[in-house]
Amino acid sequence: MKQIVVIGGGAAGMMAAIGAAREGARVILLEKNEKLGKKIYITGKGRCNLTNACDRQEFTEHVVSNPRFFLSAFHGFDNAQTVELFERLGMLTKTERGKRVFPVSDKSSDVIRALERECKRLGVSVHLHAEAASLATEPAGETGPDIPAGTERPAKKKKTYVSRVTGVVLKDGTKLAADAVIVATGGLSYPATGSTGDGYRMAKSCGHSVSRLRPSLVSLKASDACCAALAGLSLRNVGVKFLSADGTVLAEDFGELLFTHKGISGPTVLTATARAGDALAGGTAVLDLKPGLSDEQLDARLVRELEAGHAKQMDNWIGALVPAALGGEILRRAGIPADSKAASVTKPKRLQLLRELRAMTLQITGLGDFNEAVVTKGGVSTDEVNPSTMESRITRGLFFAGEVLDLDATTGGFNLQIAWSTGMLAGRKAAQEIDTNR
């Protein structure tokens, strides 16, 4: 029986183990932590947004890095199949706003338990507190059939590998022999969960290129003192435009935004970091607090509200337009004393108030670090991995899955689906392709 070692017991690793075991392989799953799925446990604030129910075209539009590479894996195991799998494993799901899919229980632990049960049913040998130190390899020559001379197609060169994987060496010196190894170690985000870049080191040891690694789906730092004062305030239905230092629009979105002690976060911000990354630093976030109204409609409303509440103090009056905590900051920026009466607001001040409601600016100084980033941007070069199998083009029998690859997406369940899809493909193909690789 073929033996496959999967390094990493997260989303991609567990799915890879399941995929390989279903193909009849003996599977050893290595996890250096004390339990499987540590990062799954904290995703979605403990609820686990496990995928997104949008159609295939829309889904791939949310994959930011190397979306074409992802197509084969997604075609073989897509979001609908992911939901079907979990339902068959006894974990019911529900779809919420933005087509985000969650367990009905709202417990990420149910996602982990469903995968653990399936691993156990399939006979996957799970080794906890088992840290892989390196890959065991040996030199390898060419493989793959030549096309006979004289055929209509020109003869293709054999596929050339530098090495062939033979197993995994654990930190304690133990060597586990393997017909194939799947690296599913995650990236650098949330290092407390065990994501410390082990897979990148292993990939490099086999000659793979690793693109620049940086945090993605992460909060932004801002120099504005108001952010700390407004920390914890969440805004819904806000328009956000991110501009570079020279005024170029880097990203634009509509939805939720959260003020933090250091700056801003929330879905609109996380998505911007996925799409624009480092370019956001040194730029500006422009908040449209009334995106549903045109300038004319907003001005007309301000006129009505000021007339109706002419005797009110402005810090009380503005609570009808925005949350009270934010209202004080808007008044300050508009140059309107909080204790002045609504009746005293002149047309120039009203128009300045309109501008602040329409374009409240925040100066972005940088991105958060890997300790708070949801995913890692960058990773093992997809040019060096076969998208149809997830096998290395350099080392025979070596497969990659999940965040260790240079694949990432926006927020909303898309990154976990990358893990499910690439994990399932890597597991299946590792089991199916071994005979042709030996």
Main attributes of the structure:
FAD/NAD(P)-binding domain, 438 residues, alpha+beta, 6-stranded antiparallel beta barrel
What does this molecule look like?
Helix content is 33%, strand content 25%. The chain is an alpha+beta fold. The chain folds into 2 domains: 3-215 and 373-437, FAD/NAD(P)-binding domain (3-Layer(bba) Sandwich); 219-368, no CATH class. The strands form 7 sheets. A 6-stranded antiparallel beta barrel has the order 15-18-17-16-19-20. It is elongated.
Q: Give me the count of strands.
A: 24
* Number of helical segments with 4 or more residues: 14
Beta percentage is 15-25%
In terms of structural class, how would the helical and strand content be classed?
Answer: alpha+beta
**What gap, in angstroms, lies between the N and C termini?**
14 Å
Global morphology: elongated
Largest sheet entry: 6 strands, antiparallel, barrel
Counted up, domains total 2
Order of strands in the sheet with most strands: 15-18-17-16-19-20
The residue fraction in helices comes out at 25-40%
Q: In CATH, what is the homologous superfamily of the largest domain? A: FAD/NAD(P)-binding domain
Q: What is CATH's topology name of the largest domain?
A: FAD/NAD(P)-binding domain
Rg is 26 Å
User: Which segments are poorly predicted (pLDDT under 50) over 5 or more consecutive residues?
Assistant: 143-158
Q: Per CATH, which architecture of the largest domain?
A: 3-Layer(bba) Sandwich
What would CATH call the class of the largest domain? Alpha Beta
